Amino acid sequence: MLELAALSITPRGGLPLFAPLTLAIPPGEVCTLMGPSGIGKSTLLDAIGGHLSPDFTLTGDIRLNGQSLLPLPAESRRVGLMFQEALLFPHLSVGDNLAFGLDPAVKPRAARRAAIEAALADAGLAGFYSRDPATLSGGQRARAALMRALLAKPRALLLDEPFSRLDASLRADIRRFTFDHARAEAIPTLLVTHDASDAMATGGPVHHLA
Ligand SMILES: Nc1ncnc2c1ncn2[C@@H]1O[C@H](COP(=O)(O)OP(=O)(O)OP(=O)(O)O)[C@@H](O)[C@H]1O
């Protein structure tokens, strides 16, 4: 369960970006966050992931499975991120990009390779291990980026407009793929989008920042 409790974010010397936000996302639910440009949606995701700029102060709490995330550095929070750009490291193969996400507890080389090959197959990318990410289509890149996030066994997933660069037909496919995985792996997921069809497709609640 990912919980935001009376969460408020204020830039230095300014006013709070939005009214205090309280919400709870149970395992496997995809909750949508909407709101006008500049209200602080991406900043809120930064705060949950542990990447909030020191230019902001935060009040309230962010809890994951009952534990406050606020004292934890980003790398200890185990929160997965997926952005609009579906960024893959350009100097690494597709497989090595996914390896970057893989839980370090999986140690033997063969086990690591097998986990990555299985994730690639799941994403319709069997045989792509050695490919240069620059040679992937937008949809293939989005699926690879999601798999990299999931291989890290995140305890929550934050999606910041991850479908907005995809054309309409691909968009529906990739978002079904993404939400199905969040549900199947029982990961509480927060989606930022401007697109009402994305929000509808989640089957979950919608919160409007104001
Ligand atoms: N370092 C900073 N110091 C103070 N204010 C900042 C800083 N960085 C960003 N802001 C402001 O914080 C606000 C929140 O920005 P944010 O990118 O989170 O909005 P958003 O809702 O994600 O917008 P969009 O929908 O356009 O992506 C904006 O008004 C922005 O101008």
UniProtKB/TrEMBL annotation:
<keyword id="KW-0547">Nucleotide-binding</keyword>
<dbReference type="InterPro" id="IPR027417">
    <property type="entry name" value="P-loop_NTPase"/>
</dbReference>
<keyword id="KW-0067">ATP-binding</keyword>
<feature type="domain" description="ABC transporter">
    <location>
        <begin position="2"/>
        <end position="209"/>
    </location>
</feature>
<dbReference type="InterPro" id="IPR003439">
    <property type="entry name" value="ABC_transporter-like_ATP-bd"/>
</dbReference>
<keyword id="KW-0813">Transport</keyword>
<dbReference type="InterPro" id="IPR003593">
    <property type="entry name" value="AAA+_ATPase"/>
</dbReference>
<protein>
    <submittedName>
        <fullName>Putative thiamine transport system ATP-binding protein</fullName>
    </submittedName>
</protein>
<dbReference type="InterPro" id="IPR050093">
    <property type="entry name" value="ABC_SmlMolc_Importer"/>
</dbReference>
<dbReference type="Pfam" id="PF00005">
    <property type="entry name" value="ABC_tran"/>
</dbReference>
<dbReference type="GO" id="GO:0016887">
    <property type="term" value="F:ATP hydrolysis activity"/>
</dbReference>
<dbReference type="GO" id="GO:0005524">
    <property type="term" value="F:ATP binding"/>
</dbReference>
